[in-house]
Every structure is written in C-alpha cells, then in structure tokens.
Amino acid sequence: MALVAGIDSSTQSCKVVIREADTGRLVRSGSAAHPPGTEVDPEAWWTALGSAVEAAGGLADVAALAVAGQQHGLVCLDPEGRVIRPALLWNDTRSADAAVDLVRELGDGDLAVGSSRWADAVGTVPVASLTVSKLRWLADHEPQHAERLAAIALPHDWLTWRLSGAASLDTLVTDRSDASGTGYFDAVTGAYRHDLLALALRRHVAEVADIVLPRVLAPNEPAGRGDAALGLGHVTLGPGCGDNAGAALGLGLVPGQTSLSLGTSGVVASVSSTPTHDASGLVSGFADATGHFLPLACTLNASRVLDATAGLLGVDHAGLSELALAATPGADGLVLVPYLEGERTPNLPTATGSLHHLTLASMTRPNLARAAVEGLLGLMAGCVTALAAQGVDVRRVTLVGGAARSDAVRQIAPSLLGVTVDVPEPGEYVADGAARQAAWVLSGGATPPDWAIGEVATFDADPTPDVVARYSAAADEVAARLRG
Ligand SMILES: Nc1ncnc2c1ncn2[C@@H]1O[C@H](COP(=O)(O)OP(=O)(O)O)[C@@H](O)[C@H]1O
Ligand SMILES: O=C(CO)[C@@H](O)[C@H](O)COP(=O)(O)O
C-alpha cells in the first residue's frame, strides 16, 4: 500500500506523519523543535525538518509528501536563491506601524476608507502579521535588503522548494491558502496583486514585475518530484498549504464547519463556499486547501498563556488543568487579559497582559489557573463573535492544537464560547492535512481521499455569559487605555 508523508512546519516545532494513502492509517511519526523567537533563520526549519523526518523513520518508502506551514512568515531570497535575512514570523509585531501606514495610504489618508479598500481587494486588512506589512517594514528599515529581493516565499513554499532541490527561483510554488495570507493575493480571482506589492515596497508596479512570487498551484496539483540528491527522486511533492488550511483538510471539514486551534496562535477558522471582506479587520478572508474559502480570526496568544501560567504556578499542564477545575467559574472575579505577546484580534500589537480584580479572596492558585484558561477562552470567544458578525454561523467547533490536550480547556470552552466543542483524539491535524493533500495529489482524484478521523469526544455546558462579560469589560478597559 502506498505511503504519504505530511509535514507541519509550525511556530514551535516541525511534525511529520506518515500514513497509508488509501485509508489514512497512521504508520509512524516524528517531530523536532524549532528555535524560539519571532525571527528565525529558515535553515533552522530545514534542519528541524530533517530531524523530524529521521525521527519518523525516513521517507524511503513514501510515494508523495506535502508541507503545511505557519502562515505569513517573510522569507526573502536574493537572485542566487540565498536567504537575505532571518525570516520575520507571523507573531513578530515590529511591522505594526507599517500595517497602519499601508491601510492609510490605500485609503488616501483615511484609515476607514483604506480598511474597506484592502478588505475588498484581498479579503484582509493588513495587521503586523501579514507578509505585506513585513515587506513595508523591510523597505523602510532595511532598504539594503529590500533592494536585493529577487523572490519572496512563505515558510511552506521555501521548504517545498528545498525538498525539490531549489533548482532556480522559477521553481518556487505555493497554494491558494498560503498565498491568501500574504496580503498581495486575491483568493477570489486567484491572482497576485502586484500593485499592492509595489505599494508595500514603495516602488512602481513595473519595478516589482521581476520579483518572483511562487506559482500558485491547484489544491491537488503536483509540484514535481523531490530532489534525487536528497534521496527524494521517488517522491511526488504536493503544493502544500498554510497550517490553518492544513488543519481543516486534516479534520475533513466541509463548508459550514469550524475549527478552534489552540497552538501558539489561537484560531477560529470556518470553511466557507463564499469569501468574506471584513473591513473591521478582525476576520481574515483567507482561502482553504480544497478550493473553498477559510475566513478566520487569529490571536497572538494561546497555548503559551497556559505554558506561562503553569510555569508561574510551578505545575505541569495536568496540574494547571486540575487547579483550574478546582476553582469556581469566574475565578472569584479574577480576570486575566492574556495579551502576553501583544495582540492581533483585537489589533493591539503593543498591549501587555494584565490581571484584574485581585482581592484577598480571588488571589489563589486555583483562581489564577482558572483565570488563565478563562482569559484564553474569553479571547477566543471574541474570535467567534467576529466570525458571526461576518455571517459565519458557528454552533460547534472542532478543538485541536497543543492546548486541546488540557481537560480544563475542553470542559470550560463550551460555556465561554457558547458552542458545542468536539474534541478528536490528540493528534497532528495540520500534518495530517498535508498528508491527505499528498494522497490526493497521488490519486489524481477530483476530491481528497476519505480518511476517518477516529473517536471524537463532545463537550457541552451551560453558557456563562457573566464570565464572558467580566472578561470583555476588562479587555475593553485595556483597549481603551491603549487607544487613548
Ligand atoms: N496538556 C496541555 N495543556 C495545555 N497546553 C499544552 C498541553 N500540551 C501541550 N501544550 C502546549 O501546546 C503548544 C504546542 O502546540 P502546537 O499546536 O504544536 O503549537 P504550534 O503548532 O503553534 O507549534 C505548546 O505551547 C505546548 O506547551
Ligand atoms: O498567523 C496565523 C494565521 O493567520 C497563525 O495561525 C500562524 O499560521 C501560526 O500558526 P501556529 O504555529 O500557531 O499553528
């Protein structure tokens, strides 16, 4: 039976799954850590990919593979294909002012007009995370690097290219899902917007015509063979995808279904047959990996809020969960607004985290653990509301990502989000999506192969609107202070 590999090059690590192409049965897997930080030498991803593949027993018996990756990261390549500077990641907020400038400029000086023009053009209003904002930052702060730009790639594009042997810049490929996160690709027409790329680089359109942008392949279009020199001449490469589109494909979501991913980022993403154009900027109008759309709301803070709180309390994740479940809902009034890395949804890149309503009664270890879980889920409730405002009907979500392993998150999520929460077996659903894409490319079929996702536990709870309201009031206070 043919085997396929799926790779998830995410923020904190690289994960590899090897599955049977026809059934999706997991055969083996491996992972390797990525370095910390919000700018990373792509070579570190390449090294981690090699280690993860080795831990997964190699690719000698694999017929096809695809790479899913953290979205938006800016990989700058010179004419020889060398990386010009470390990649700026999706969670690097130095480009926050650049994003505001881009919105203002497209609006001829008016932010509201600019927001609606960006939303109309590419489905998304730039924030610090988007590639287009990082390019403007580069043009303004490192013009010597911007001048050498011969090609622009995203993390998954670059890794696919390396696996293919990186013969020339013209062999760079991507897919619609990841291209839609650049800010200079229109997922509705399927075309790059060179005018917006030129705006970002402060150049005329004719001056960016020579910059190579990866060719956008169809969802099941082969990207050629792997590099024979790497021992991958027998492997068909898939186009790959952004990690959130990968998760949707791995979970087998169809239009109308929504995922809640709590990894480094927190993401509520819904597969949709129609695009969104949210001028408020809260919802990004991305594409999925099957030809549909993937409106999503993404936070900078998620699993690491729990990591940091567990560290502070001197417990592991199981201990944090136990403590949180020992406290009563609402944590005796204690509220954590978890903007530990700034925030993107809402767009408050310079925000910091804050604890509200500390009293002798509320200042206990269980309450702090509970406030961390409720703060994270309060933040995600805002994402659900933002999607609903765009007409996305979210009544149930499928919970994935590292923090989906937390019992406290599973049990408390339905009450704060006000939806049913389905939790599949812990797994690497982004890598699974990449593997499923590889199997699709291999089969040449019109639709991805049917793979079962196994046991799903369902969590329901009575809504706790008072807890959400207290969180929202504290978050509004922070926003009001920052916005002056
Ligand atoms: N049981 C758990 N409870 C809460 N968080 C967890 C648990 N297990 C792992 N994590 C956290 O999940 C994160 C990794 O999740 P993952 O989805 O792989 O992230 P990413 O894809 O962004 O690299 C880490 O921050 C890790 O500490
Ligand atoms: O910026 C986004 C989506 O717009 C993030 O979701 C990144 O794609 C990083 O994902 P994880 O490493 O948290 O999975």
Automatic annotation (TrEMBL):
Q: Specify the superkingdom.
A: Bacteria
Q: What is its EC number?
A: 2.7.1.17
Which part of the chain is the Carbohydrate kinase FGGY C-terminal domain?
A: 260-440
Designated name of the protein: Xylulose kinase
In which organism is this protein found? Answer: Intrasporangium oryzae NRRL B-24470
Q: Where is the active site?
A: D243
Q: Cross-referenced PROSITE patterns, in alphabetical order?
A: FGGY_KINASES_1
GO MF terms here are: ATP binding; D-xylulokinase activity
